[in-house]
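Worked problem 6 (solution included).
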Amino acid sequence: MTSTQGALDDAPEAALESAGKPKRALELVRPPILLADTQAIVKRIEAQISETFLVYWNSPGGSVCQNDVVGFYELLRAIGKQDRVTLFIKSDGGDGTASLRIVHLLRQFASRVTVAVPLACLSAATMIALGADEILMGPLAHLSAVDTALTHDLSPIDKDNLRVRVSPDELNRILALWRQESRGETMNPYEDIFKYVHPLVIGAADRASSLSMRLCTEILSYHLEDGEKARAISHTLNAEYPSHVYPITLREARRIGLNARELDPGLNDLLIELNEMYSEMGQKAITDFDEQNYHDNGILNILECRASQIFYQNDTDWHYMRNERRWIRLNDNSSWRKAELAGGEVVQSVFHIR
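Solution. The predicted structure is:
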């Protein structure tokens, strides 16, 4: 263990004491860092595909975010410009504008980009896949629709006192049902809708939908010269599926015009094996203190290449505010971290992103 890692390990309990709370007797649950094992598989994959291999993996609690762009830049800068790059993606989505920035960055370092999808590649992750010259999909692989839902400061409140995500598609369906039931009578549905959804939220949702269309079209333009085809694919992904999580399998991906083909079975097996290791790293790492307090030490996002591994790790206490019916963060020492192999040992350091 390095001195830096020792400081990271001691941070949560020191923070608890400084906050006036008694020091916990429980040892904090910590996820394993399996860099030696994952690097061995990364090398096997690069030997099989004969090109540079990158990993972008999110746990269920992680998401595509702006800081990931800086993480990718650190990896790509270390390996330099390449003719061909294959990117393994497993993610449930996140910020679409970050997807555009990731695709743009990849294109600065690689002449041709292939995305390998053995499992879920959803929402904003699907947007990243749109930026690839070719998408390789295994038997369990699926993309998804990219229609937008957003949580606004004026969104409705749910039973847990949290803001509700509002989808333009859901609003449009309300309006369509209203017109169908009104049978031509002149009534303004917004008078009733505004009782539950603030007009600024409706405007923001429509704006987010327009942004999603623009992002998809722009991302596709990095390799697709046919503008009409790019707009058609974007419209399909944003407006033609009845559910945001509709599974777009290889067959459906081809039907809507994506350049997708079957993932080599041997490569698919290696990616599944790699996913199992990341899943072990990204397992829940919760230490329960009592019914109102716990510590979260889980790993959310992982990026890796043959040089190093960069990941985001929670390191924070959570406290339940009974009167407000919500959880709040305390003593948050969460950070991006970088792991490298030195003499067969895993060396960790804080990867500063601001």
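Discussion: The radius of gyration is 22 Å.
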